Amino acid sequence: MDIHDFNTLLAAACQQPVPQQLLLVFAKAVLHDDHQPQEAERFARGQGGILLPIMCLDRAAGELVDFASLQAESARMGEPWQIVFVACLDGSAGGPPAAADIEAALKRMIQTIQTGGDVSRYLAFDRDGDIVRFH
Prior knowledge:
Elements: H1 6-14, E1 20-30, H2 37-44, E2 50-60, H3 67-77, E3 83-90, H4 99-114, E4 123-126
């Protein structure tokens, strides 16, 4: 299945033979503390900056209806975000993944984003639910 937006990811996750837990880390772009004036100018034009994780959650694939419902839930949870990183974690024996496995995976995702690590293992979506590709 070609995943081009959040809703196609959700549909693919729901079709898997093993229960899928969606791990979501919401982030916003910010300037780092010791930025240069040129970096601030670029940032003002919507370029550059660093990604700062601001909140996370996990949901069984079947718990989410669509991207609009995820947007509404995230709006109730906290501050505005610009990008959401998503990973899927397989359940086992017909049930969801263990809570400890979910927590550990979310911590790894947050740490990867905070340190500027390789986020290519995650899918990323903008505020419209469209996939974001990093170059």
